[in-house]
Amino acid sequence: MTAETSQTLDRGLRVLKLLADTDHGLTVTELSTKLGVNRTVVYRLLATLEQHALVRRDLGGRARVGLGVLRLGRQVHPLVREAALPALRSLAEDIGATAHLTLVDGTEALAVAVVEPTWTDYHVAYRAGFRHPLDRGAAGRAILAARQAPSADPGYTLTHGELEAGASGAAAPLVGVTGVEGSVGVVMLADSVPERVGPRVVEAAREVAEALR
């Protein structure tokens, strides 16, 4: 801690992070142990977070993340979209195909930013807000590949005709971005993806990841 930081706020944020990392919640004692502070401090932190609906306690007394975080989360997509747009524009113009940033939303892949090329005669219409299962389409499959090998270089994923007849896709996962699980990709009307597209998509995914760090 430095003179410019708040110890209480730091502890409160650490509580939220600890609760976000567990599915079954944590007791006051468990939080006290993990934070290295006494139970009285934890009670005060939880009471304050509960007032803002950021934490809730179940009947057994276990603390969990509250629904108030959803209100904060609604502002995440616009910020992520804004950070990703320069890399997506460059990718779309370079490849001549529709570029997109896709994030995980529950069990689905959600396109949160889409950029279409300006110079092509035709391209795939792909809209922000489009959803599809994670196990279909290059965007979702790239995310699943990164989950299966989190410490390895996941490279890129190619698909054809899984979401739209006649369309091929290439996508690479975002790597090293805390709290964001997603991928960057392109979709094009082609029987196969040209060889140079995969590495270019990986490059764009790295650019977006760097913008989000």
UniProtKB/TrEMBL annotation:
The IclR-ED domain, residue ranges: 68-213
Keywords assigned by UniProt, alphabetized: DNA-binding, Transcription, Transcription regulation
One Pfam family of this chain: HTH_IclR
GO MF annotation terms: DNA binding; DNA-binding transcription factor activity
InterPro entries: ArsR-like_HTH (IPR011991), GAF-like_dom_sf (IPR029016), HTH_MetabolicPath_Reg (IPR050707), Tscrpt_reg_IclR_C (IPR014757), Tscrpt_reg_IclR_N (IPR005471), WH-like_DNA-bd_sf (IPR036388), WH_DNA-bd_sf (IPR036390)
SMART domains hit by this protein: HTH_ICLR
Keyword Transcription regulation: yes
Domain HTH iclR-type stretches: 6-67
Keyword Manganese: no
One GO term (biological process): negative regulation of DNA-templated transcription
Name of the molecule in the record: Transcriptional regulator
